[in-house]
Structure prediction request, 325 residues.
Amino acid sequence: MLFISRIILGVIPLAYCVLFAGQAFGEEAPLLFPGSRNPMKKWEVETITDDVYGFRFTFYRNIFIVTDDGVIVVDPLNPEAATIMREEIRKITDKPVKYVVYSHSHWDHVSGGQVFKDEGAQFVAHEACAANFVENPNSDVVMPDITYKDEYKISLGGKSLEMFYFGPSHDNCMVPLLIQPANMLFMVDTANPPHGWVMFYNPAVSEDRVWHMVKFLTRTDELIQARGIETVIGAHMTMGIDPNTGKRGIVPGLMGPSSVVAERAEFWQSVIDAVRGELAAGTLAVDVPEILVEKKVLADKIDGYQPDQMRILFRRITSYALTGE
Ligand SMILES: [Zn+2]
Prediction:
């Protein structure tokens, strides 16, 4: 995705580009987005536990884990964000960044790692991500030093970060990341707190592997159950009712219940079932999106439901129902 990926915020990213293109705004400048009453700084460090931090940069979030033997960073985001984050990490610890882990291969999450490479960090990614970077290179993306096929665990200073490959999802190498001992799961672009029934930002979801999304989320939920994980950290902001102000806007929270993953599987399955049901009833594929919107299918369940976006999403899923992809 060019600017921001998955799950969030309706038309906001495009509007953001239009509104703020060419503007320089510093850390303290509030960001106000259409439909949102909540001003936000451009970036901030968020304390999750005493050793796990979130770094939010515009709508993006990554995490870093501080240990006595060094720091583990997940997703550098972009050169500007990575540079700011490096300075912020230095305010917390004088230990070096030892590892940079990629959640998946999309440039909007994994660019900008050079600042960490320069201090000797090892870069870790799924082997399919590494192949993507060879096939489709970006000079801002540092190539991984360490790749893995199914699972990988980094242990550092008594803490750990585990990666689990559950097959294709949002791209072909996305992994949920389990932080220990916090026992929290960092999910990027596939499930976002506080719940799973939030409209996509980009309902065309061209890069999503629709055919495997429910399986990916189901396998992730099995991990959640097996490990007793209660909390998911999301990589993006979500539109909703801000509990602090009672107003609709960007919800500033970064964590939510792990049920978000099962809910997201239900979201996908429900949209797929709606499309298949309409096709099975004999509706022409070309008419399916409009008819499902006219019938207001799932309108009462999806937070941020917008007919125009649902028409696109139903069209995307109709294509999947016909082609299997
Ligand atoms: Zn992505």
In short: DSSP finds nine helices and 15 strands in the chain. Residues 241 and 248 are 4 Å apart (CA to CA). The chain has a mean pLDDT of 87. The first strand starts at residue 43 and ends at 47.
